[in-house]
Write a structure and sequence with these properties.
Order of helices and strands: HHHHHH
Distance between the termini: 33 Å
Shape: elongated
Structural class: mainly alpha
Radius of gyration: 18 Å
Largest sheet: none
Number of domains: 1
Oligomer: single chain
Mean pLDDT: 91
Number of strands: 0
Length: about 140
C-alpha cells in the first residue's frame, strides 16, 4: 500500500532549496563542491524515503545512483554526448570525476544512518514511556 511520508518530503524540499541556493550563489570552494555533494545524497535519500521505501533499500539506491553519476563523470559522458553547452546536463551529471565526491557521498550516508538510528532510539523510548503510563 502506498503511503507518503511528509517528514521526509519536508526535509527533501529544505535540502533542495539549499542545493539551489548553493548552485546559484556559491561559485566554488568547499561549500559548492564538497558540501553540495554531501547534501545531495541526503536530498536523494529523503526523496526516496518520501515513498516509505525501507531504510536499507533507500540507502543502497541512493549510493548506487550517486556512484553511477560519478562513473558517468569518469567516462566524460557529458562531453561524449556533446552536452557541454547544456547547463542542466552539465550540472546534474557533472563534468569531472573526483574521489572526494565519493567520500562526500559516503559521509552523507553515514550521517543519514546516524540520524535514522537516533530517531529509532527516541521513538522506542517514547513508546516505552507511553506503555508505562498505560500500565
Amino acid at each position: 500500500m502506498f503511503r507518503f511520508n511528509s517528514t521526509y518530503f519536508f526535509c527533501f524540499v529544505a535540502l533542495l532549496i539549499t542545493e539551489i541556493c548553493i548552485a546559484m550563489y556559491v561559485s566554488g570552494g568547499f561549500i559548492r563542491h564538497s558540501l553540495g555533494d554531501f547534501l545531495v545524497v541526503i536530498l536523494l535519500y529523503c526523496f526516496i524515503r518520501c515513498f516509505n521505501i525501507k531504510l536499507v533499500t533507500a540507502l543502497v539506491i541512493t549510493l548506487l545512483f550517486a556512484y553511477m553519476v560519478e562513473l558517468l563523470q569518469y567516462f566524460n559522458v557529458v562531453e561524449k554526448l556533446h552536452l557541454q553547452q547544456n547547463r542542466v546536463a552539465s550540472t546534474v551529471i557533472g563534468t569531472s570525476f573526483s574521489w572526494g565526491d565519493i567520500l562526500a557521498y559516503n559521509l552523507g550516508m553515514v550521517l543519514v544512518i546516524i540520524i535514522e538510528k537516533l530517531a529509532q532510539c527516541i521513538s522506542s523510548r517514547s513508546q516505552q514511556k507511553a506503555d508505562r503510563r498505560l500500565s
